[in-house]
Amino acid sequence: MTKLDRTDARLLLALCDAPRATGVQLATMLKLARNTVQARLARWDQDKVLAPIDRCVSPRDLGYPLKAFISVVVDQHRLEDVIAELEKVTQVTQVTGLSGAADLLVAVVATDADDLYRVAGLILAVPGVQRTTMSVAMHEVIAYRTRPLIEKLARGE
User: Fold this and answer.
1) Across residues 133-146, what is the average pLDDT?
2) Mean pLDDT of the 77-101 span
3) Running DSSP on this structure, what letter comes out for residue 53?
4) For 106-121, how does the pLDDT look when each residue is reduced to its tens digit (9 = 90+)?
5) Which of 53, 91, 84, 52 is nearest to 69 (CA)?
6) CATH number of 59-136
7) pLDDT-derived band of residue 2, with 50, 70 and 90 as boundaries?
8) Distance between CA atoms of 31 and 51, rounded to whole angstroms?
9) CA 140, CA 84: separation in Å to the nearest integer?
10) DSSP H or E run through 126
11) Class for domain 6-50, per CATH?
């Protein structure tokens, strides 16, 4: 069950098109009461519906053009410690828990191949990491997106 309804979806789509719009502007665009818009925006803040702005900044623009994914096999007794250590590695941009052959999928960025080698070594050196396998991202074919899901909700599907 979703926490968002069709009105939320319409508001999110408007924000996708005009991310700097004010509450009054959004209310006018969507023909909603200003209080309705403000209440929903406040609820989203409280519920952390929207991701932080840093998710919108490309690592490439920060000087990290190389992206890789590292599959990590972890000693299960040390999983929490491993995650805590990975969080300290600046160039780790995301860690996802997996089922299957690997336990974690770690997304990293680097300035060049030498930097990537260094970052991979930092991860392999974390106590509790048993094995890693790295894949370098050659080209992002479909970027992270939720707009199609928002559009589907807006249509009431």
Assistant:
1) 95
2) 97
3) G
4) 999 999 999 999 999 9
5) 91
6) 3.30.70.920
7) low
8) 26
9) 28
10) none
11) mainly alpha
